[in-house]
Amino acid sequence: MSRFQSLFGLSARIPQQKMKPTGEWYPVLDASELLKPHHELLDQIRQCFGVPETVWTSTHGQLIQNFARRVQLLPTCEEGPPMELGGLIRLRLETVNHALKIRRGYMLPNGASTECISEQQEIWSFAVLSAALLHDIGISLADVMLIVKHHNGGESLWSLACGDLPAETSYHPDSNRVRSDKQCQALQLLVTGQLIPASALLWLSQYPDVFKLWLLMLSGRCAEAGILGEIITKADQYATAKPISRNWSGQRREGIHFQSSPPENTVEVMGQEST
C-alpha cells in the first residue's frame, strides 16, 4: 500500500453533513473551509502587511485562497511518517510566516535610500509571501495523481496542473510514480501563473529588480534568486525542521479532525484490501 493510499484511508470529519467523505473518497472543499483551521497563522501573516484591506483581499488573500483551493487536503511531500492530512497547506503557511519574520531583518533593496526602502517595503514583502507559498508547488502536484468521482458515479483521472478540482465531486489521491524533475519545473511555472492574481503579477512587474529575483525563485533557481532565495531557504529549513504532526495529532480544529498516523485496521483501497 502506498503512503498516499495509507494517508487518505484515514477519516476526516467535516462540519457539514453533506460534505462528509465516504470511505476513501474526499470531498472538494472551498477555500474558507480549508483555511479555517489555520486562522491563527493567517492572522499573523496579515499583521506583517500595512496594505488596505481591499488590497490584501484582492492580492495576498486571494493568492492564499487560490492555493488552498487547488491543493485541497494533500499532505506534504516530506519524507517519513507521520503524514498529515491537509499538511501541505499548513506547511506552506508556516513557511510564509517564518519567511516574513526573517524578511524583517533585511532593509530591502540592499544599499538603497531610506525613501526607496520605504516605498518598496510592501512589494518585497509580497514577493516573500508569494515565493514562500508557491516555490515548491510543482513538486507537490507532480508527486500526486487524483482519481475523481463525479456526481453521476463516473470516475476519471485529474491532474491538479489542469485546474481546481470540480465542485461537488470527491477524489482519491495516489502517488505518481513516473514524475521527473523536468516535469516538476514545468508544473511550477504553469501552476504559479494559474494561481497568482493578475493584479499581483502586474504589481510585481512594476519593480524589475524584485520581479527578476521572484521569477528566478519560482523557476527553481534558488541559488540565483539573491536575497529572496536566501530568505526562503532559511524559512524552509525552519518550517520543515518541526514535526509534521505537532499541531494536529489527535486534536480537533474548527470542526475538522485529522489523525497523524493510519489506524491499526485494514484500509480498503480502490476496491482491494491492503494492510
Description:
This protein has 275 residues and is an alpha+beta fold. It contains 13 helices and 8 strands. The chain has helices at residues 3-7, 31-35, 39-46, 53-58, 60-71, 87-103, 114-119, 121-134, 137-142, 181-195, 198-205, 208-218, 226-240; strands at 26-27, 144-149, 155-158, 170-175, 252-253, 256-257, 267-269, 272-274. The protein has a 4-stranded antiparallel beta sheet with strand order 1-4-2-3. A two-stranded antiparallel sheet has the order 5-6. Helix 8 (121-134) packs across helix 13 (226-240). The longest helix has 17 residues, at 87-103. The model is unreliable at 1-23 and 243-275 (pLDDT under 50).
Which terms would index this structure?
disordered N terminus; four-stranded antiparallel beta sheet; two-stranded antiparallel ribbon; alpha+beta; 10% strand; 13 helices; 275 residues
